[in-house]
């Protein structure tokens, strides 16, 4: 019996070393991917928390903007009042007029408060109104000619 290194033993050892090396590299690669995924998960969780915080802030702002008192003040600034009976019409999908539900008559509108003059209002509150056309759509040359004659 020979006590030296045989060819089969050397091939087996080389193959074993290559397998262990491949397994070690695979394990290292999987560990690196796991760490990368952990960082990505942490980043996404932080982003979710930030988005949830933004959503809650925006909900508070929306609720503040839609308070009935604020809407009443804005409506009075723009001269808006409650709709009188018969002003609201409901239309179906095909464009036909539907029967309106019974609506309690609105109380008579209070007398209009004297409007502020533009010089009494701060510049941010002064709004210039654009002239309105009675014809819907873009103005053609005929409407332009009529408008020029009337001015």
Lay out the secondary structure.
Layout: H1 7-65, H2 68-77, E1 90-91, E2 97-98, H3 141-150
Overview in brief:
The protein is mainly α and 151 residues long.
Task: Explain what the structure shows.
The protein has 151 residues and is mainly alpha-helical. Helices cover 52% and strands 3% of the residues. The chain is built from three helices and two strands; from the N terminus they run H-H-E-E-H. It has helices at residues 7-65, 68-77, 141-150; strands at residues 90-91, 97-98. Strands 1-2 form a two-stranded antiparallel sheet. The longest helix is centred in the first third of the chain and has 59 residues, at 7-65. The termini are far apart.
N→C terminal distance? 123 Å
Percentage beta strand: under 5%
Strand order of the largest sheet: 1-2
User: What general form does the structure show?
Assistant: rod-shaped
Helix content: 40-55%
Report the radius of gyration as a whole number of Å.
Answer: 39 Å
Weakly predicted, low-confidence segments? 124-138
What attributes does this structure have?
single chain, 151 residues, 3 helices, 52% helix, 3% strand, rod-shaped
């Amino acid at each position: 019996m020979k006590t030296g290194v045989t060819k089969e033993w050397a091939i087996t050892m080389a193959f074993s070393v290559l397998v262990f090396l491949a397994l070690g590299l695979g394990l290292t690669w999987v560990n690196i991917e796991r760490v990368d995924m952990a960082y990505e998960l942490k980043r996404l969780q932080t982003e979710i928390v930030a988005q949830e915080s933004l959503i809650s802030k925006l909900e508070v702002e929306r609720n503040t903007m839609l308070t009935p008192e604020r809407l009443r003040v804005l409506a009075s600034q723009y001269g808006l009042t409650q709709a009188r009976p018969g002003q609201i019409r409901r239309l179906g999908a095909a464009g036909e007029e539907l029967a309106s539900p019974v609506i309690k008559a609105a109380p008579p509108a209070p007398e209009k408060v004297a409007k502020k003059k533009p010089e009494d209002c701060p510049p941010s509150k002064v709004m210039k109104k654009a002239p309105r056309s009675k014809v819907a759509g873009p103005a053609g040359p005929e409407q332009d000619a009529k408008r020029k004659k009337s001015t």
